[in-house]
Automatic annotation (TrEMBL):
BP terms from Gene Ontology: regulation of DNA-templated transcription
Protein name: Protein AF-9 homolog
One of the Pfam families matching this protein, by short name: YEATS
Gene3D superfamilies reported in the protein's UniProt record: YEATS domain
Subcellular localization(s) per the UniProt record: Nucleus
Source lineage: Eukaryota, Fungi, Dikarya, Ascomycota, Pezizomycotina
Keywords assigned: Coiled coil, Nucleus, Transcription, Transcription regulation
Low complexity biased stretches: 171-197
Annotated coiled-coil segments of the chain: 234-275
Source species of the chain: Thermothelomyces thermophilus (strain ATCC 42464 / BCRC 31852 / DSM 1799)
Endpoints of the signal sequence: none
Length: 278
């Protein structure tokens, strides 16, 4: 960790979304043949990764990632150095599930200490119901266990703030008014629009823009819609919000029913007391 340079940018919080997780596949002669040299008892090939949403580059804030695998695996602590635009990932084969410690090392300009995440490697279909497990089996036996996460930088140091916010221009930025859909309604904007980069000034109003529902380089936004291999989006968020709202309505119904029952019991109790006192 480098000593801090410059001052902290007060009152600013910047978040950068990312995805981490594992994808596993059983060995199969046709669809996933076992490469030569892989031990007999290995049943699956799998990948663990950390990457940007829509594969957007995150190496400008994340320098390297250490994956600590199960001790039964040779050379079980692996360091992956960031390569611009590429995910931090490693491919392995094995027979068992275990917890992977994923340690994130930030760029030196951030002066941030490394942080560790934990992720359970899943090899076998899982789910709350048999149906959910079956869905996974139908998906070519590929077992996907991914999580969406947001890295928050609180009051970053000035040089790091510059790095975080001096991003690439959106493809639609230079063309006059044919910008992507305005995203500032979605609540997915990461920070106040930085100077240059992801903002667009129109009629004195700053609007966040993004291209074709995807995210931009150095973006803190999630895509508008889902696509194969990219389940994290505003669309997913809306579905989850709807589910929560429906659950809330259900809870409120249950609550008012319980209240009615209590009131009826109290009434009955009062009646009994009165008749007993007569
Ligand atoms: C289990 N507690 O029993 C876990 C341990 C260990 C998995 C799982 C070894 C691979 C290799 C491997 O898959 N270990 O030898 O390279 O399920």
């Amino acid at each position: 960790m480098a000593p801090p340079t410059g001052k902290r940018v007060k009152g600013v919080q910047i978040f950068r979304p990312f995805v981490y997780g594992t994808t596993a596949k059983p060995f199969d002669e046709k669809t996933n043949p076992k490469p030569p040299g892989v031990p007999d008892d290995h049943t699956h090939s799998w990948t663990v990764f950390v990457k940007g949403i829509d594969d957007v580059d995150i190496t400008y804030w994340l320098r390297r990632v250490q994956f600590k695998l199960h001790e039964s695996i040779p050379n079980h602590v692996r360091m992956i150095e960031g390569e611009k635009g590429k995910p931090f990932e490693l491919h392995e084969t094995g027979w068992g599930e275990f917890e992977i410690a994923i340690k994130l090392y930030y760029v030196p300009e951030s002066s941030e200490k490394p942080q560790t995440l934990y992720h359970h490697l899943r090899l076998h279909p899982y789910g709350r119901t048999e149906e959910e497990k079956e869905d996974m089996r139908l998906n070519g036996g590929e077992v996907i266990s991914w999580a969406y996460e947001e890295q928050i930088f609180n009051e970053p140091y000035e040089p790091f703030y510059e790095i975080l916010t001096s991003g690439a221009m959106p493809p639609s930025f230079s063309s006059s008014s044919s910008g992507g859909p305005s995203a500032n309604k979605s609540g997915a904007a990461g920070s106040k629009p930085p100077s240059g980069g992801k903002s667009k000034e129109k009629d004195g109003q700053v609007k966040m823009v993004r291209s074709e529902g995807g995210v931009l380089e150095r973006s803190a936004m999630i895509p508008l819609t889902n696509r194969p291999g990219q389940p994290f989006s505003v669309e997913t968020e809306q579905v989850e919000i709807k589910k929560l709202q429906e659950a809330l309505v259900k809870v409120e119904k249950m609550l008012s029913k319980t209240k009615e029952e209590v009131a009826a019991k109290e009434k009955r109790l009062k009646e009994l007391k009165e008749s007993a006192g007569k």
